[in-house]
Amino acid sequence: MVRPRRSRLALVAGALIVVVSIAFALRKDHGRTVAVPTVPAPKGVKPLADPYAWAPDRSADFSRRAAAGTAGALYELSPGGVAVSAARVARFRPQIERAAKAAGVRADRLEGLVFLESAGRPDATAGGVQSAAGLTQILAETGQDLLGMKIDTARSASYTRRIARAAGARRVAALERARARVDERFDPGKALAATARYLAMAKNKFGREDLAFVSYHMGMGNLDGVLKAYGKGPVPYAQLYFDSTPLRHAAAYAKLSGFGDDSSNYFWKIGAAEAIMRLMRTDPARLARQSALLEAPAPPAADGDLVAVRSASGMRFPPGARLRSEAAALALYAGALVKTISGAPSLNVTGTAGGRLDVSRRYASPAQAVAFQYVLDRLRVLGAIQWWRDARSIHITVSKDAARLEPLLKR
């Protein structure tokens, strides 16, 4: 990174001192008014368009970034690593293509679903055969009642126990074939065909492929509830997700954020899985590099890249705090947005280190905690930050993407 000039350092250091409130400016974007959070600008200075606010022309970019922003879990948790998981999934490509054609959906997207649900393991289970099982992790009740599958959970569980005790590959294979006859979720072809039936039903209900895939994890009833709360019919999922905030379509946002099982991000993770499968076929070396990059710790920022910051609206810093300029700008943006949503006093920053800041989890009110959670989740999905928590603090690492907020520091 090029070291900033001293005049710019003074602007950055001073900006977080003088800013005391946040306002909402309005901008027309392709005929649609978009609320733009920004620090008060000097007279005659055009307010900064919020780079993280929804607008229709950002749909493709936000979808791409959301897939990238949620990819970390797939790289971290894929059994045997993403390359091994991708190779397992690729074995089923012919069956995936047949099922996708039957459902009227893209094969690549269905392949992403298989990667996400089972990492290509037709014997995968989550909580036993009474729960989700098979290549596409179909619930026993859903398979029996909605998809017309043959599922005898008692016999399936018995075979599963025998498989666990069996010795020898031939014996295991024979028992697995027998289990697949009494529980069709363990037959990859039949599991994919059943998933295709579900997706076809959901696509017919919602009129959109993206919403059909969202409902695979969320459930059609739950998704229908979110859409009704949003109030504009079966809109694209990118619009439903990014345009639902505590300040806009708050009822829809409350439903999306209230599932507690990351249902709202399921569609983005399918996109991340699609990208992994695409790299496996076209550029496996890049996939390996990407995997190593996501697993490696970020290098510390050099002292020359740091600037002094002081307390501002929405964020209270300890004396002598220093941050990279993009981190300072993001702190200003995030803190002011939390304050606007919640009306609460400033968040307390307990430590800074280059591109990282630690924020105390002692909140002024429940509203402040909810607002901060929204800001954290939205900025992570869009690739501006990564964050994690411990008992006392939220630890935020700011990415270079947040440099688009640096004009805020010149206000």
What does this structure look like?
- It is built from 18 helices and 12 strands.
- A hairpin with a 3-residue loop joins strand 11 (385-389) and strand 12.
- The radius of gyration is 24 Å and the shape is elongated.
- Helix 5 (93-103) crosses helix 6 (107-118), helix 10 (188-206) packs across helix 11 (209-218) and helix 15 packs across helix 16 (284-295).
- With 411 residues, the chain is an alpha+beta fold.
- The protein has a 5-stranded mixed beta sheet with strand order 7-9-10-12-11. Strands 3-4-5 form a 3-stranded antiparallel beta sheet.
- It folds into 2 domains: 1-53 and 300-411, no CATH class; 61-122 and 187-268, no CATH class.
- 52% of the residues lie in helices and 12% in strands.
- It has helices at residues 6-18, 59-69, 72-77, 82-90, 93-103, 107-118, 140-145, 153-165, 169-182, 188-206, 209-218, 220-230, 237-242, 250-257, 266-282, 284-295, 325-342, 366-381; strands at residues 23-29, 32-38, 125-126, 132-133, 138-139, 306-308, 315-316, 322-324, 347-353, 356-360, 385-389, 393-398.
How is this fold's topology laid out?
Blueprint: H1 6-18, E1 23-29, E2 32-38, H2 59-69, H3 72-77, H4 82-90, H5 93-103, H6 107-118, E3 125-126, E4 132-133, E5 138-139, H7 140-145, H8 153-165, H9 169-182, H10 188-206, H11 209-218, H12 220-230, H13 237-242, H14 250-257, H15 266-282, H16 284-295, E6 306-308, E7 315-316, E8 322-324, H17 325-342, E9 347-353, E10 356-360, H18 366-381, E11 385-389, E12 393-398
Parallel strand pairs: 7-9
Antiparallel strand pairs: 1-2, 3-4, 4-5, 6-8, 9-10, 10-12, 11-12
Helix pairs in contact: 2-15, 5-6, 5-10, 6-15, 8-9, 10-11, 11-12, 12-14, 15-16, 17-18
